[in-house]
Amino acid sequence: MKALQFSRTGDLAALQVVELPTPVPATGEVLVQIKAAGLNPSDVKNVLGRFPYTTMPRVPGRDFAGVVVEGPQALIGQEVWGTGKEIGFLRDGSHAGYIALSAKGVALKPASLSFVQAASLGVPYTTAWDALERSLVKAGTRLLVIGANGAVGSAAIALAKVRGAQVLAAVRKPDQLRALQAQGFDAIQLDKPEDLGAQVNAVFAGGADVIFDTTGFWLPAAVPALAPFGRIAIIAAPVDGHVQLPALALYRKGGSVVGINSLLYGVEACARMLEQFGKLFDEGTLPLPTGLLESPLDEGVARYADVNQGGAEKVILVP
Fold it and tell me: What three-state secondary structure class fits 22?
């Protein structure tokens, strides 16, 4: 099979298109013929050496959609999707023609999603789902999502809307603001961090019950925007890993900070998440992904470079 593979880290030049033997599934595993595989920023960071536990040589890639060609009889021929912490790090991932993984680590693909659409959702949607679950977002929760235009932010506001939360989306650019308002969301334009509290209180009197920061830079500014006993969920941090947290203001509000890391969940746990929100696409309550950039796996090295340079398009690699 054709695959992307790296044998050292620190430089995207380490990534190459290679020919590898098709994986042989072990007992309790399936072999999936990959029809589409999402390219996430974490895949790029993996090749750059940001995950010290990655073993090499390694095929990267976490998200995929495809067809089961070997494994338990009940699964053969089924269209499936998956993601998880092992693949691409401790065992070969999805940026290849085939992938072998636990039979319990795949979920049946929603019929309403194409392979390309399904492959775009794994990491962003499991991250957003985990954030909403662990910060206790439910009907009526006043939720602020900072960076609502990004992959995880978009997933968070869509999933929160289905739950009946009151959603306020925060973005930096006027065109992003207009796009969200056109979708029916209340939205604010981010400006000075010291103004965020007043901006949010103008919409949610007394502050937001939950604030979801997808950027890593708005944690200090989020505290004044938080309601008493509120929760701030974070999925990112600056490069040095540090922010100045106004601890006095946070504990006076009884607030808490929830760290969200999709790499805490293996393929089997992620498959259960995919099953839960996947049905919402077939029910028509979640919007189908659009604006995806399909690229042949042969051009994967160039697409990694695009993502590393900050390209905004969601890239899907097609073997």
Answer: coil
**pLDDT interval class at 238 (50, 70, 90):** confident
- Contact between residue 165 and residue 138 where contact means Cβ atoms under 8 Å apart: yes
Buried b (16+ CB within 10 A) or exposed e, 129-142: bbbbeebebeeebb
Q: Across the strands, what pairs with 146? A: 170, 213
Report how far apart the first and last C-alpha atoms of the chain are (Å, whole number). 9
Task: Quickly count: other Cβ atoms within 10 Å of residue 115's Cβ.
Answer: 21
Spatial strand order in the sheet of 256-259: 186-189, 166-171, 142-146, 208-213, 226-234, 256-259
- If you count DSSP H runs as helices and E runs as strands, how many of each does the chain have, helices first? 10, 15
Q: Are 157 and 132 in contact (CB under 8 A)?
A: no
d(CA 250, CA 222): 10
Query: Would the pTM of this model clear 0.70, i.e. be above it?
Result: yes
Q: Which residues pair with 232 in a beta bridge?
A: 211, 257
